[in-house]
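Case study 2.
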Amino acid sequence: MKNKKSLNTDESKIDGLLTKVFEEIESRSLGNSEAGKAMNFYDLDAMTQGLSPGNLYIIGGRPAMGKTSFVLNIAKNIGQFHNLPVCFFSLETSKKMLSYRLLSMDTGIESGRLRTGRLTQDEWPFLGEAINSYSKNPIYLIDKSTIQVSEIYQFCEEVKNNHKKNLGLIVIDFLQLLEDRTLGQNISREDELSKILNDLKNLSINLEVPVIITSQLNRELETRLNKRPMLSDIRDSEVIENKADLIAFIYRDEYYNPETEDRGITEIIVTKQSNGPVGTVKLLFEPQYTRFRNLAI
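Prediction:
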């Protein structure tokens, strides 16, 4: 995918750039604008300053940690709170299943009962309200087992043009299933992944939208006593670390230690952030609703 932005001397001159930066700083000091789009997870927003256009965010986790549910929560929040189009590309989970998860998050009705239709009389109005809310919310769910970055770009550009405003977020679940069929058969997976990430970075810059990508982690993590993920646990970690603006891991201690004091708690471990601090944020996870919440307001 080609970078569509042409070079412009006026836009590149330092005095003009610094004037824009000053205006941005002044506006934020007055509370008139935000650094990035808030995810509605207060501690995580404070650490990251929200999701910034042009940035690549990698969310890694082992199976059963809840990484798909977590990024789906973020997508829902961006769409609802900012009223901006969101595109969620799922290479593994069907869009119907994602729809059930979204309804469970909003209604507080277990997704299992939604799928079987076992609702009480009092719960039907909540379901109707949630469906009505999403009908006004420009969230797009795309399920496809294989997809090219060029297809993602084309779809998102069409959504942007249809709504006549920038997208709030693009989510891709997950990185290891992406491929580039334009490359020769002899190219290494590392080189292919590097090109894919470069293309996604160009997409995020050209469309002025943050991009979240989930990633699998190596199985060797399971053999350690402390199973909290580290950068080296990401598959193809060197390539990903070089390309990503932020890398975070999702970890639930109760999955490995049922007697832990942190039952119901999920750790979001930020291990790389190009423009900010690293550290750990804790969220409440309600698996029956596939819902993440702030621990305290």
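Residues 39-294 form a domain with the Rossmann fold fold (CATH 3.40.50.300).
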